[in-house]
Design brief:
Layout lengths: L2 H8 L44 H4 L3 H15 L3 E6 L4 H4 L4 E3 L1 H9 L6 E5 L2 H10 L5 E3 L15 H15 L12 E5 L4 H9 L3 E3 L4 H11 L3 E4 L2 H10 L9 E2 L10 H6 L2 E4 L11 H10 L4 E4 L5 H6 L2 E2 L2 H10 L5 E5 L2 H10 L4 E4 L15 H12 L11 H16 L6
Parallel strand pairs: 1-2, 1-3, 3-4, 5-6, 5-7, 7-9, 8-9, 10-11, 10-12, 12-13
This protein binds 1,3-dihydroxyacetonephosphate and iron/sulfur cluster.
């Protein structure tokens, strides 16, 4: 049983869904993302589907799966490297060669030249990025193809192209006296490879939550405005921190002409925010921050910048998953931390740093439903397939898309996080 299963079985009222105790394979056949914070979100048509995981892996117990993973890893040696995101369950993290946030994992994909195969325990956009940055001949495998990201799904290529066409018609394409073009596209890492390629083609860049400020500085040096997608919250929180007034950050709703704005609002804009959000981080509220402060005087509240702006404003600090990890690691005195991010990461920090009291701002256990899709059963399956000289679930971005996306990703990798 996983740590979350134990909690669900002992205290089902404290979890967002009793389905969390089920294996992710039970959800591979359903149209939604399964249990967890984005269970209400539907996987877009055309998104990759996971075939049925063989019964031998669905029915194996945890000890058996871990033994099989270890044996397959040992047989593969340095031909394979396993990358894991901080939001993965502990049962998967224990097998990762490298654990990190999305910026670090993108870097890591470039620094494992000997491995023939990168097994990416994260979500689809991260595996796509690894494939774009990996060396030729290196394959990237996502153990469960249904591990998407509901936020990334909120901006599709057609809607962004349509938005861009309307903005270009409004702004024109002429640079101003300082050489700044009317608008620069910035996509959050949590987006499809096609949108990263769009940014590469249009003089734009990719950002992660750890380097968003450096990236916006880069964009403002080159453009009068920024179109930021898909996460409105990361865009708003970062631009606000940099002094951009809220009234100069109109939101773009792709279902409405001019995104639901007037031409004047858009002309005056500094950042046009796409209307996407993360279903995990939108669960955090100002009331939770207030309750944490009332219950635990002196608590240090740290949240991820995908949280809504009022939550970020009410917190003591906001930063990427790696920022949060480092902040906890750096605390010398025993401290009480209330953390606003995904539950697997918060629980792991609490176990790693018992000298501190660490709890999730949201009292209900609710993991990211797409990260949840990666289970040791899938990891054992892909590794044993590799041992048998077969390669399932390879993520391959077509070269014409990858070439443009690489331009925007290389710009991102050069934009170091402020706290690095
Ligand atoms: P990081 O960039 O902090 O790793 O976050 C990725 C993510 O998906 C957060 O929801
Ligand atoms: Fe996507 Fe949110 Fe899950 Fe991150 S936590 S992978 S943004 S759904």
């Amino acid at each position: 049983m996983t740590s979350i299963d134990v909690l669900i079985r002992s205290a089902p009222d404290e979890a967002c869904s009793t389905d969390l105790a089920k294996g992710p394979w039970e959800f591979d056949v359903t149209p939604g993302y399964g249990p967890g914070s984005s269970m209400g979100d539907v996987i877009p048509t055309g998104a990759p589907r996971q075939g049925e995981l063989p019964a031998a892996y669905r029915e194996a117990d945890a000890a058996d799966l871990h033994a099989r993973i270890r044996a397959a890893k040992a047989a593969l040696g340095d031909r394979v490297v396993i990358l894991g995101h901080f939001y993965q369950r502990d049962e998967v993290v224990q097998h990762a060669d490298f654990l990190g946030d999305s910026f670090q994992l993108a870097n890591a994909a470039q620094t494992v030249p000997n491995a023939e195969t990168i097994v990416f325990c994260g979500v689809h956009f991260m595996a796509e990025t690894a494939d774009i940055l990996a060396r030729p001949g290196q394959d990237v495998i996502l153990p469960n193809l249904a591990a998407g990201c509901s936020m990334a799904d909120m901006a599709d290529e057609d809607s962004v192209e349509e938005c861009w066409a309307q903005l270009e018609e409004l702004y024109g394409t002429e640079a101003d006296a300082e050489g700044r073009v009317p608008i620069i596209p910035v996509t959050y890492m949590n987006s499809s490879a096609a949108l990263k390629a769009f940014c590469g083609r249009h003089g734009g860049i990719v950002c992660t939550s750890s380097n968003a400020e450096t990236v916006l500085e880069w964009a403002f040096e080159r453009g009068q405005r920024v179109l930021f997608f898909p996460d409105q919250h990361l865009g708003r929180n970062t631009a606000k921190k940099m002094g951009v007034p809220l009234e100069r950050m109109p939101m773009w709703n792709p279902r409405k002409p001019l995104g639901g704005n007037t031409a004047d609002d858009l002309t005056d804009a500094r950042v046009v925010l796409w209307h996407g959000f993360c279903s995990v981080h939108k669960r955090f509220t100002v009331e939770q921050v207030e309750k944490a402060r009332a219950d635990r005087p002196g608590v240090r509240v740290i949240v991820h910048p995908e949280c809504p702006m009022p939550v970020v404003d009410a917190a003591d600090e906001a930063g990427s998953t790696d920022y949060i990890r480092k902040a906890v690691a750096a605390a010398i005195e025993p401290t009480t931390f209330a953390i606003g991010t995904e539950i697997n990461m918060v629980n792991r920090l609490a176990a790693e740093y018992p000298q501190h009291e660490i709890f999730c701002l949201d009292p209900v256990v609710c993991p990211c439903s797409t990260m949840y899709r990666i289970h040791p059963g899938y990891l054992a399956w892909v590794l044993e397939e590799l041992v048998a000289e077969r390669k399932p679930n390879v993520i391959r971005v077509p070269e014409r898309v990858a070439a443009d996306a690489r331009v925007a990703l290389d710009r991102m990798l050069a934009a170091k996080p402020k706290d690095a």
